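#onboarding

Welcome to the new folks! Below is a worked example of what a typical request in this channel looks like: someone posts a single protein sequence, and someone else replies with the predicted structure as tokens. Don't worry about understanding the tokens yet, we'll cover that in week two.

Example request:
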Amino acid sequence: MKHIMLPVIGMFLAVCPVAAKTGDSLVSGKIAALTSVWLQHNGYSLQPRALEPFTVVSRVFDAPPASTNSPVSSSLVFQQQLYSLRMQQIKGDKGLSLNAGYLENLQPNLSDDDLFYKRRVQTGLDWNILGNGLLANKNKEQVLQNESTIARLKDKEKSSPDQLLLTYNSIIYAFNIQKTVLLEKRKKISEEKLNTIGELYYLHQVPNTKFMESLQQQVQISSQYQLYKAYNDQLNTIINPATLPAGMLPAFDIDQEKLLLLAGIHPSADSIRMLVSENFRLQSALTNDMRLAANLRYNYYDMINITNRGFFSAGLNFSVPIRFQKTRNEQLIEVQQNLQQEEQRYVDQQLRLNIANYFYEFRYKLKQYADLAEKRKLYIELIRIERVKQQFGDLEFNPLTALTLLDDLLAIDIEMTDVSQQLYLKLLDIKEQLPGTPVSEYIMPYRAAAAALPQRPAQRSIYIWSKAVKDHSNSMIVEYLRYQKIGTAMVSVNKEKAPLAKTFALIDSLANNKIAVELLAGNNNLIKKDITVYLDSLSALIGTHKINGIHLDVEPHTLADWDTKKTEYLDAYVDMLRKARQYCNRKGWKLGVSIPVFYPETHLKEIYDIVDEAIIMAYEHPDAEWITKKIAEEMKISPGKTTIAIRAKDFKNRNDMEALMKELAQNLDLSVMALHDFSTLLELDEQKGTGGSD
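Example response:
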């Protein structure tokens, strides 16, 4: 725990020298409290997001949760009742009518023709059979029946506003539950962290800005929590939480082809069109204008000079309109049908446009979800690194940094939940456009696109100089190499720059983790000495510690008099390698060397005949074409023994380095590549750029 606290204490002491006076023990206790908060909560990053199965999505929309107190729209019921009553009214009208008439002659006179009565009374029964009568009423009844059917068909293709609103509220309600759970977790961590930061602040160990940031974070979390909770509290009397899914609703995708296909399908469209056409024909039928009426009357005459008369009479009247332009009626029907089709075409066009817009908005939200999912993976990895640092007592572990990463992860999960909510609301918009179609017919499970990660060679090796062994814990080095999938570590043994006990412990730890170890010799003056004596001294140092070979990073071309003694130095270099080869054969060790890209071909062939591996130091020019040209001779001699070394400090970022390694591996069919070196690679991952060597 002491090692864990040192960097954090150092940070606080650097902020304010007063800590030296108040005592490290008090500050250490506060840092220990922060570490305790981390230990209590960091396991959250190990937990996968608990999502409901994909089938839940369909149930949300096709079988929405019931409301505890939700009014149900009855407009269709009233409409159907109205049609039914009007049809019954017309059906009861048989075309019969009762009539009566009275006529009074004001100046009755026998001399007037046919006026032989003073007054006349008529009463009787008329029966209209065609227009405005029995048959016309049957047509009217059928028209109403068709309109009733059309209303029902249209209702199937129309979303209920009440149900849409209920589903909308239920979606937000369900996601708010999940967001408040995450906020409660975030709030708990923030409060525990703030308590300790506040104490450190009052001890003058934390700057004012850091303390204010923590307070601001607490206010933000609280306001978010109250926002979501207040919304749900208002809906508690309308929505029954027991009907909602218990877990997090999953993300999903939409099959665009199926969606657009369904947008052009209207199961009721043909039926509605036929019914509308039938109504046009019924309303324009010739029989509606024809008249056929039968009558039965009782007649009573008050005569002038003769006995009054009363008698029954019966009659039949018929009339038919004369239409000189019969085709006009047919044209009217045709135009009405065309108008109805054009209106439907416009509706279909608007439907497709609306769906296309909603689908675009949905896919945009889905992209945001995918981006957040990748961001979440990054933060899980960053938290994992902090966990390893803490577990192995790494000096670089900082509980404040670790807790900040954990809070960021929770914030990402809340944002992902909010984006998921928006996905569901966009699907509800689409559902409103296709109310008669279950969403199960056009949704599909969400599958994240496979990340286009750079292809990596099958194996990688790395240079580890003594300074790196000194500056970093063994556990951190091993964990980093495992994460980077390093197969071979070339480790420098230099008792003046790193304790031998620590170096040998690192060698053992690497071997236990199945990482091959080669001792790295980086003394350029070895060509002037007896290599056998040097290797004997190394062998005595390592004792029983397991190594796989020796790697000689001896570079005579760096000597001051290289230009005048090039051939002499190269001959001495080859002679050194022959002696090293004999020694390695006795020990059963592999022999590797690091050489530049410009050694002459004659000496290259001798070098390749001796060694097991030649690592070509392709430094300073991070360009695939340049490197390929420069190592053409080496690849021609023995591609199987050739490994290219890439120097991390030649790159601005890790992506550029990986891209070059991918290109070289593909172009040259390399199975192994080397990285120079551990320290600069680690700094490159942190966007820095210095390196080191022995």
